[in-house]
Design goal:
Blueprint (H helix, E strand, L loop, with lengths): L8 E6 L13 H16 L3 E6 L2 H5 L12 H25 L4 E6 L1 H5 L1 H16 L3 E6 L13 H11 L4 E6 L20 E2 L4 H7 L11 H13 L4 E5 L5 H6 L6 E3 L10 H8 L5 E5 L1 H8 L10 E5 L7 E5 L5 E6 L4 H8 L19 E3 L10
Parallel strand pairs: 1-2, 1-5, 2-4, 3-4, 5-7, 6-8, 9-11
Antiparallel strand pairs: 7-8, 9-10, 11-12, 12-13
EC number: 2.7.2.11
Family: Belongs to the glutamate 5-kinase family.
InterPro entries: AceGlu_kinase-like_sf, Asp/Glu/Uridylate_kinase, G5K_ProB, Glu/AcGlu_kinase, Glu_5kinase, Glu_5kinase/COase_Synthase, PUA, PUA-like_sf
Length: 377
Amino acid sequence: MTPGIDTKRIVIKIGSSSLTSMNGEVSRRKLEKLVEEVVRLKDDGHEVLLVSSGAVAAGYRKLGCLTRPDSLSERQAAASIGQGVLIETYSDLFISHGYVASQILITRSDFSDENRYNNARNTINVLLERGIVPIVNENDTITMDFLKFGDNDTLSAKVAGLVDADQLIILSDIDGLYDSDPRKNEDAKLLTKVNEITPEIEAAAGEPGSSVGTGGMKSKIEAVKIAMASGIPSFLGKSSTNSIVYDAVDNNAVGTYFEPQEDMEELNQKKQWIAFNSGPEGEVTIKPSAKEAILENHTSLEPSAVYSVNGRFKKGAVVKIFDPTGEEIGLGVVNYSSKALDQLINKIDVDLEKYEKAAIESEQLVCHLDTSVLTTV
């Protein structure tokens, strides 16, 4: 460990276009560059986790496809080939430097189930603490499109929150976030520091631009919003830039740094899971008087403040919370089943001794004022 260095836990996301060659196969040269920079961080005592795309891009030619396939079954078949190629290459390169890499394939359902979410967290913590380099990817071979994270930008932000990362680094084929599309406007200016994701910034993000990946600048901004809500600083830069990863950790790289506002309330692990990973199973509509108490005073939601219940859910489920106008204001873990809560608010066969708890405790409730990226996945 280099004396005087403040060690960090760092999540690095690298996209398909940043690690594959022009013909769609894994570029060993690009992977060598990335691994060498990660090794420098490891030698300095940092803990590093990679979220690596590239399974489909690495495998589709070996499947016999001339271009990236469109059909789900072909993409999944390509991923089953490419993931093996990818992790074998990573493993060989890290071993050559004296480090061990591990493979973690995740599906969205692993995150939506709280027990599996916590198990993934515990496993990755052990790997990082033992000096291993976990390499995470979505399990593309078995995941259906409607159950996907969407892209590895989103996955990397959620993984960063999962492991309480100190920094998220997203590597792409562009220098960072510009005030307009630099491919269309030669006067576009690089934004070097961003403290808030404004509508103007989201508009500047545009649409996906790479033919070998699933994400674009828009998905990266969404990922950054998740990281910022979790209190995690992020960096976006060009993967081919010399020493980009090492310099990004040292706050000395060309790119865009995203720093959460100092007065922004960070979501703890429980609230991160509720906001970004849980799968809501029902809905409750609250009375007008309860909205201000929840949004501004962060109070619990009492059964007496619930106006109606929609859907069937068990005690402990996550539900969406709506105000009387139909606007969704948050998510929370309910202390009652839909049947019990409906009976309570309509005073049907009520045994008050069974209803001493709040409908949703404040520490189990996340509202849109806590985060601008509340996700109902």
